[in-house]
# Entry
Amino acid sequence: MVKEILYGAVPVLILFLVFLKVNVGPFLVFAAVLAGIYFLMSRQSGVSMGGRSKRSKHVVPKTNIQFADIGGQERAKRELKEALDFLIKKEKISHYGIRPIKGVLLTGPPGTGKTLMAKAAANYTNSAFVAASGSQFVEMYVGVGAQRVRDLFRDVKQMAEKNGQDSGIIFIDEIEVIGGKRDGQQQREYDQTLNQLLTEMDGIGASDTPRILLIAATNRKDMLDPALLRPGRFDRHIVVDLPDKKAREQILRIHTAGKPLADDVGLEKIAQETFGFSGAQMESVVNEAAIYAMRDHSETIEIRHFALAVDKVMMGEQTDREATVEEKRRVAIHELGHAIISEQVRPGSVSQVTLTPRGQALGYVRQNPMEDRYLYTKEALEQQIMVCLGGAVAEEIYYGGRSTGSKNDFEQALTMAQEIVQSGMSRLGIVHLSYIAKSQVHDEVNRILEELLEQTRRVLRQFDPVFVNSLQILLEKEVLGGDLFRSMLREQQPTGELIGS
Ligand code: ADP
# Structure
């Protein structure tokens, strides 16, 4: 209303001043600058000067996600439901005089279903639901972050009241962005935001209507300020981890429901081949497979579409990059190096060696499914390191010198060698990294890698003839099937020392 009056009055005032022959130029420039600043501020904060946002960005469209729509995560779902019962069973809580839960922290890698869990929690408890991400609170204007925290609480209360719900859930993703440890030095914008969040949480009362529950998600619990994790704040911690094989199968089942699957599609087999994939990646596999089927004009989504989709999610889209003949030869040699060592370490492991460029890679070895594994012995780690080194060693032997193509392999090998040291399986014994010199760790990691490089060289040289023959096939056909490769390896029984002997 005030705005409308201003809109009308200002032009009249200007005209009046012009009529009086007053020079209005400087006033106009000043007013334009003020208007510019106001516009920017209100865009940044989403809050109009009247103090109320017109349309909140935190209100998310109502979803129908239930706990049943989340594959796996049985333990996490159980723990979360337990925490939510505190929101539902009010009488019991007050009967026993239990302090209500204010905050639940979900921790785990991206794409494991933390947001889904929060949404399902809102439906389970029939709560109003608002969501924000930590990065949305980071602004260059001091006070905007804190204002947004207030907005969040206000929004959820308003929404619950409007819908007649007696509880509200606020979901904050990437909480570490605002909830990082305070350094105690300079007063940062983050500190104000975090303080505001703590104040709001402390202000939640047991008998409030609507009852507010905060659910936050992070991948970096170690970075959070201890004040956030104190009892009475985010004191329920629930781990939402990468899915295991059974969970991956369930996620596939959820996302393939209602899609035209061919009879040959075994979800268990796909789950087995996707070790280490997150829920979001599993969803992506299903989606990509459907896209491949559509491109193929196939009535149904077949197993080959899933195979392509798994490759795509793992390695990236096939690219049109045409490698030079020289490059192709080098890549073929490199991949065969990996493949030969892989077969020695885990017979039957190579499913296919390919020279098709995909993502950043110019070629790759497709492995047969492995069992989910969470513990590694020293031997297993050493063998994996040798598989990684196989590519560079083959280039050295058959091409002369290494190339930048081995960078990723070396990174993986280094990580695994460090794992050996940190797990107390190296010559250094049980060590704490902060008590020994970095150079000592470096030397030991190097020694491990040098020894394994030497061993990899010895193994590869044993298979000289197979190497030459399979290289020929790979260069001609651009693919080499695992069975053919194994039969060639069997024909040439190596003599002398092999891995582990
Ligand atoms: P996070 O919040 O942990 O990063 P999300 O909950 O946003 O992950 O998950 C992203 C997408 O991945 C979801 O929309 C869903 O399609 C899929 N997804 C992830 N985890 C699961 C799961 N456990 N069950 C079913 N789908 C999942």
About this structure: The domain at 245-315 is CATH 1.10.8.60 (Helicase, Ruva Protein; domain 3). The radius of gyration is 30 Å.
